[in-house]
Amino acid sequence: MTDFVLQHFNYWVVIFLMMIGMYTVISRGHLLKKVIGLNIFQTSVFILYISIGYIEGGTVPIVAGQVVGNTGDVVYANPLPHVLILTAIVVGVSTTALALALIIRIRDAYGTLEENDILKLDQDSDG
Amino acid sequence: MSDETQLIVIILLPLVVAPVCYVVPSPRVAWLLTLATATGCFLIAVQLLLAVLDGGGFSYHLGGWAPPVGIEYRLDVFAAFVLLVLTAIFLVCQLYAGSLTRKSGIKEIPLAIAPTFFAATLLCISGLMGIVVTGDVFNLFVFLEIASLATYAMISLGRQRRALTAAFQYLVLGTIGATFFLIGVGLLYAETGTLNMQEMSTLMPELVDRRTTFTGMTFVIIGLALKLAIFPLHLWLPNAYTEAPSVVTALLAGTSTKVAFYALVRMTVSVFGLETIADTPLPLILLIVGALAVIVTSAQAILQVNIKRILAYSSVAQIGYMVIGVGLLTVEGLTAGFVHLFNHALTKTGLFMAVGIMLLNTVDAKLPSVAGLGRRMPWTSAAVVITAFSLVGIPGTAGFISKWALLDAAMAQEAYFIVGVIVIGSLLACIYLLRLLDVMYFRAPEKVSDHMPAETLTVPFPMITALWVLAIACLWFGMFTEHSLSVAKLAATTIMGVQ
Amino acid sequence: MIWIVLIPLAAALVTAMLAPRLSPQSRVPERLAMLGAFVQAAIMFFIVFQFATVATFSAGPWVLAEPIPGITLAFHFEPLSLLFAVIASILWFATTLYASGYMRAHGETALPRFYCFLGISISATLALAFSANLFTMFVFYEILTLSTWPLVVHTEDETARRGGRTYLGVLIATSIGLFLPAIVWVYQLAGTVTFTPGGVLPAETSGVVVSLLLLLFVLGVGKSAVMPLHRWLPAAMVAPTPVSAFLHAVAVVKAGVFALAKIVVYIFGLNISSDVLAHWIIWLPAITVLLASLIAMREDNLKRRLAYSTISQLSYIVLAVLLFSPEGTLAAGLHITMHAFAKITLFFGAGAILIASHCTKVSELDGMGRQMPLVFVCFAIGSLSIVGLPPAGGLWSKWFLGQAIVASEYPGAWLLLGVILLSAILNSIYLLGIAVRAFIKPFSGAATIEAVPWSMQAAMLIATGMTVLLFLMPMPLHEWLVVLTLSIR
Prior knowledge:
The complex is a heterotrimer. Chain A is mainly alpha-helical. Chain A has a single domain, classed as Orthogonal Bundle (Helix Hairpins), CATH 1.10.287. Chain A is 72% helix and 0% strand. Chain A has five helices and no strands. In chain A, α2 packs antiparallel against α3 (31-53) and α3 runs antiparallel to α4 (80-110). Chain B is mainly alpha-helical. Chain B has a domain at 281-499. In chain B, α14 packs antiparallel against α17 (398-412) and α17 (398-412) packs parallel to α19. Chain B is globular and about 65 Å long. Chain C has one domain (2-488). The longest helix of chain C has 33 residues, at 158-190. Chain C starts with 5 loop residues before the first helix and ends with a helix. Chains in contact: A-B, B-C. Chains A and B meet through α3 and α4 of A and α5 and α6 of B.
């Protein structure tokens, strides 16, 4: 049992972070906290990717010595997930930036960042 | 320029023009640049469709790197079809947006922001087109996010402050959806070792029994379902469509959900494979949520007072129809779904455009405010009549063709429950649309308020022209369907034949 | 030759384009409509006489488009269509004549819109008449519903809009909910939806399927007003009287029963052998005949009484059609004609009474016959036709209907015959009774009688004249219909 947990340690971390992130997004009413939750959620995915890219006994995926030729016995960790994650991080940062910009505008327009208060203000202006 | 190169040019063109638009000081020049780009993209899309119809699908390898090492762009009939719809709607919407640059300033978007707005539009369409042509699942994610980010920004430009919260809500839900998609891709990559769609589809059959693959597939589907606004993951759509400026809503209604639908079909039918999907409960689930979408959201539409919100709920219902077509998982079913994609893009974009023009002349977007506009704005209202009929599915319009195709597909499968759902959905649509027409034409206007211009009506020429292009298209494709129905059928047969 | 369908549409479009430039007093819309109607009627007569000498004919099909592979938008000429088209053309002319007097005298506004949609409705009716397949018929059936809606809510007040909502609601619900699925089902079963003599359904279709399909059609073609889907007819009485006259004699209701006739003859085919079928479905129109007559007797509002009378008479036609025999189809064709002229006479009369005395209730009409002799004589002749007595043409249609029922060897035939006779007696009470009381009872003098415009009187005379003419000379019509029944046997 403990073996099972320890062997898949990275996945447990991923799930843990993912759940924290989603819970924050859903349960917290403050918009800024939602953004933070979103970020945690996205980070969990990054860890998922990177951790599955690791190959047991693999080394840094940089070719040492000559470029061409038999790289035979050397086991490299998979560089592709790292590349994907860099892209995903960029996407995540842009999303966060946009979200924060929206938050600033919402703050200006509503005066508050609490979701319930915003809803109430909207309903009041409706009626 | 060879066909393959055109594939990359169509994506690059808007991407390159976008920053130029951003730095240009004059809104009019920015608009002209966007219009030129839209025309260029549309022409290339036509060219690509003709090429695919002639010679079959083809692909382009980015940077010359052959897959699976490099990223591949693939084009088959379905992709070319959707690409054409995208660029056509984009072009017409840019025509519509021309009125944004008038000196008198259409109140929708502040004139100072117009160049930035056009830059965002170009990025959005580039992202959407990228989703359609790409043959790499991670590339799909990247373009998905490009398009979504641009969309969030565009939605927030609405007149009321509620546009900001609507955009924020869409951002949160959309990011969750995209991240789910990313998780799914990660898990699938872990199993198959490739990101290339073609290669993944060949590897899938052996790996399908493994839990990782199944989980990956599920995450991908849920993520795309969120983007597609399938019931019950549709909660962001009504707010986003209602609060966004009409220019934006018109564009989004015709493009973003269609592209998400494309992505869903591509991932499920092409990548995961027909047999794989048929074994899972997915087709049944699609039928059920599609049916629920049609009935529940049409009923909700009847209860709304805000016109744009009525149309937004209606959009969710129409997406339900498309999803039902996929759920039937036959050539007829997919044909119906695809042709509905085409016809609905024309119809909904036209309706939102018409409503946009009308809302320029009313104090708010509520139903009683448009009373009597039928007589005072005859051309706009006539276009509303045509597109509303198309939405209901009155014969003679494009919408009828897709309804018929769906009924035909459902009856061929003996899915009489679906037949009932389609019929009830049409009847519900009748209620909320005929109510709109009733108020527009047969109710006397309320007393004129300070905000409503008394006699002079704003009906900008670019807007009405764009609107009528779509209205005529609704009628045209209701009668002459060689290009819509037969291409859709070809797309369906190709996609189902190619595993 | 099919472009004849476009004449009313052209008149409508010209009216629409000229409308903004016309003053409210302008007589151009009605003159345009009358001109169009006259040309239309003349050309229709010409076409009919061309075909009258040919033993079996059909011309066409003229294909306009092919929206769905295998399903076209196509038109053709065949005996039943031409009959319906001729009736429609003659009565369009009479209606425009009538309307030109009525609308002014009643102080109605928005006349260009009225004539415009009237023209579109006629075009839709003609196109429906000439449809070569179910799909084309459905297209124009829907267009007819939608183009008559503005006519129903013409006065734009709250009662009109409510009536319009019922009208539209019932008709659209039945057409999209029942008619359309039935069409798709036929397509699934037969692979085609074209009207073919002898029917298109494959011989091995099960009796249950055929019965269900027939039921879907009978209920789905809501314009035939078979109970319980008849609510739209009385609701549509909020329309101005020319609209009611037109809807209930020419366009909408006749389109409905005509559609059913074509469907039975050319989709199901008269030889469809199924014992389950007509046996129980035929009771729907039979019950409607009696029930509607009973309700009509209790209605005091004149137009609503006429509406229920129409519902009853329409079910005569549906009953005749559902006998699934050539004699039945003959009787149906005859009754379509006779009822069209008779009913429009009655409605014209009701409108004239409204204009002259502002009375809408039957109870107020006692003794008025002596003040308005022409109107009430016409009304009397119309009533005689509905009841089925000479000197009105209705006698012939009732006669042939009775013959058809007897010839059908249908187990409940004697009961059906009883229904027809009983209904005739009821008709005489609630229709003929009006005319009788108008002449015999003393005039209450409560209402002041104004003059009836000459155009309305002329229209009434045309309609009444045709009713009497059809009594005196039914042979051309009868021979025409015999040709039809020969071609479909």
